[in-house]
Amino acid sequence: MAIKIRLARGGSKKRPYYSIVAADSRMPRDGRFIEKLGTYNPLLPKDSEDRVKMDVERIQYWIGQGGQCTDRVSRFLEAAGVVAKTERANLKKAVPGKKMQERAEEKATKAAEAAEASASAE
After folding, report:
1. Contact status, residue 16 vs residue 42, Cβ threshold 8 Å
2. Which residues, 6 or more positions from 30, have their beta carbon under 8 angstroms from its beta carbon?
3. Which residues contact 119 (CB under 8 A, 6 or more apart)?
4. Confidence band (pLDDT; 50, 70, 90) for 119?
5. Are 65 and 40 in contact (CB under 8 A)?
6. How many CB atoms within 10 Å of residue 16?
7. Closest by alpha carbon to 23, among 79, 70, 81?
8. What pLDDT is stored for residue 122 in this prediction?
């Protein structure tokens, strides 16, 4: 059985409230879980102490049993100083693909050639 330490969503529509739970990875997000380990309320200000509450000892126990933390929970643990910070993939989503870069280069060369042609015509 693969254990995940993850968030389970609660709260009403547009008023999210999350429980940090240890659950079997095959169970649905809001479904059956083994143990509740804490809470996360994203509506509170970031500097509020009640925003994230965790039972750190139990989380360390489940990690020791082979539990894997999701990205969001691992960020909470990093902020609490429980887990060492890890490097994450710096996805370059804003960088255009190869073909778009080639098109941009072609467009720039055509614009430069047109500028030269108009300058030499004068």
Report:
1. yes
2. 8, 9, 10
3. none
4. confident
5. no
6. 14
7. 70
8. 63
Q: Is residue 88 part of a domain?
A: no
Kindly report the length of the chain. 122
For residues 71-98, average pLDDT: 83
Task: Give the number of domains in the chain.
Answer: 2
CB 67 within 8 A of CB 3: yes
Q: What is the C-alpha separation between 37 and 21, in angstroms, rounded? A: 5
Q: Answer yes or no: do 27 and 75 share one domain.
A: yes
Long-range pairs for 85-90: beta carbons < 8 A, 24 or more residues apart: none
Quote the CA–CA distance of 49 and 28 in Å, as a whole number: 29
Please tell me what DSSP assigns to residue 122. -
Q: Are residues 118 and 74 in the same domain?
A: no
- Domain hosting 38: range is 3-80
Q: What is the pTM assigned to this prediction?
A: 0.69
Q: Taking 80 as the threshold, does the pLDDT of residue 93 lie above it?
A: no
Same domain? For 56 and 13 the reply is: yes
Q: Cα angle at 18 between 31 and 1, to 5 degrees?
A: 40
